[in-house]
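seq as requested:
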Amino acid sequence: MPTSLSLPFDLPFRLDLDSRSLLVLTASLVAAVPAIYMCTAGAVRNRFPELLEKRVCLLIAHPDDEAMFFAPTVLALARPETGNHVKILCLSSGNSEGLGEVRKKELVQSGLALGLRDESDVFVVDNPQDPEHPERLVYTNNLFGSEPKLGTAWQAMTTAHKSQMVWFRYLWLGFSRYMLVNDLRLEKVDEEN
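struct tokens:
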């Protein structure tokens, strides 16, 4: 028996869907949207150079930033075939709720899940007198990953940062572009200064 789909706005036509048609439509959208997104991300990603045999330090402000914002970058740079040695430098233990030690351990787990070689490749600056000074300067050079590894990025966030998985983090996982792609910005450095 068809049911009328009620929308908060008027359509120029009547939309009658039975539950099976609605299920097929929903499943099609759930499958099509990520597929289109990953295909277009791949086309953009191929325009950027790949770093090989480099030492790379990712500078982040808080534990979980590596998974929430830079997972595609870390996954691409830490692939074994690139020969890169990736390290993460975190400027805060994220101790605002007394979870600093837990969040440090989660950062290490996440880094390893994203492809870092060893626990010693994660370093957290823990200055109790100045944990998040506003005048700190962060400079990043982000890269697109060579292939989206959404499952690994989600795993790094959900399993390694359990203390941070409140309801809105799940929305972030589902809707944030940073889980699939990061932006590249080439900066010229004046070596005389």
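Confidence is low (pLDDT under 50) at residues 133-148.
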